[in-house]
Amino acid sequence: MKSSNLKEIIQGIPKAELHLHIEGSFEPELMFEIANRNNIPLAYDSIESLKKAYKFNNLQEFLDIYYIGAQVLINEQDFFDLTWAYLTKVHSENVVHVEIFFDPQTHTDRGVGFDVVINGIYKALEKGKQELGISYKLIMSYLRHLSEDSAFKTLEASLPFKNWIDGVGLDSSEVGNPPSKFEKVFKASSEQGYKLVAHAGEEGPSSYIWEALDLLKVVRIDHGNRCLDDEALVQRLLDEKIPLTLCPLSNVELKVIQKMEDHPVLKMLEKGILATIHSDDPAYFGGYMSENYYETAKALNLSTEQIMQLAINAFEASWLSDDEKKKHIKTVKNYFNSLVI
Ligand code: HPA
Ligand code: ZN
């Protein structure tokens, strides 16, 4: 397949994004604009010098910069603008459903109210649904480098907004902060009706994926790259059809893998794992959904069927109703059937 052809095919696929940190979609241009209007100095004097700093050897080096960038977000309008910019961008790539993370503690720890954060995000998501036809779910993610007590306080703060939040997740510095640290708060979150996911096996070992399943009782694993180290774990993922939300460009940029050709998604598909592709923090890792599909498909020489499988898997792995899933999967299949390759 010619690469221009591949790009066009990928562009046209109706896509679902299930692993996206809204703070990680904060493009430098918007960051400077919001920093200016809030009178907050940035440590970089230009967009170019900021972009030059986006070179990471591991997850922590990225997180250090990501939390600094988020500090300019103060008002409801800032969170609205951030979310709206993401939605209009992915709309141009034919993303029709999103399940996005936000990190309340990144903001509440700086004195920004939970209500300010969620009002801005929610209003943009609703506008996206009305005007762009993008359906959505919202996932509140606990920061795992902080204490479980802090996560409990976040859970408490979320309760007045329970109807707007579909699930909870677990992100930030993985190694040394295993899922077991958050067992109680995940149980309490589940009792409030939240669905559960967790980042596991990005930098951490496969035992963290077991813990996320057995102790936190998550329904989906974010990343999960390391599952291939453990055959029994692969079998468990297959038996229970546990989805993995993979983020290939993120994995390359954070040196989880050395090069895209090493990405485990092809092996996962061959084993029948419900593997899916997403963008994680696209403003930092050089690409949104289409680029993630494209770079992966190109490096691993994925077949059209495998690309279609990835797109179908994302709807399968989503929290849409069975009827909505069926409708989207039919659209994906019709799209591929209509292609003359
Ligand atoms: N991993 C863990 N935490 C994160 C990430 C990630 O890729 N992005 C934003 N928070
Ligand atoms: Zn992530």
Oligomer: single chain
| Envelope shape | globular
Largest sheet, in brief, is: 8 strands, parallel
What is the CATH fold-level name?
TIM Barrel
Q: Can you lay out the helices and strands and say which pair or pack?
A:
Blueprint: H1 3-12, E1 15-17, H2 28-37, H3 47-52, H4 59-70, H5 76-91, E2 95-102, H6 104-108, H7 114-132, E3 135-143, H8 148-158, E4 167-171, H9 183-191, E5 195-200, H10 206-216, E6 220-223, H11 231-239, E7 244-246, H12 248-253, H13 265-271, E8 275-277, H14 282-285, H15 289-300, H16 304-317, H17 322-338
Bound molecules: hypoxanthine and zinc ion.
Q: What would you say this structure looks like, in words?
A:
The chain has helices at residues 3-12, 28-37, 47-52, 59-70, 76-91, 104-108, 114-132, 148-158, 183-191, 206-216, 231-239, 248-253, 265-271, 282-285, 289-300, 304-317, 322-338, and strands spanning 15-17, 95-102, 135-143, 167-171, 195-200, 220-223, 244-246, 275-277. The N and C termini lie close together (8 Å). Helix 5 runs parallel beside helix 7. The model has no long low-confidence stretch (mean pLDDT 97). The protein is of the alpha/beta class and 341 residues long. The protein contains 17 helices and 8 strands. The radius of gyration is 19 Å and the shape is globular. The structure holds hypoxanthine (HPA) and zinc ion. Zinc ion binds next to loops. Residues 21, 24, 59, 66, 171-172, 199, 202, 250, 280-281 line the site of hypoxanthine.
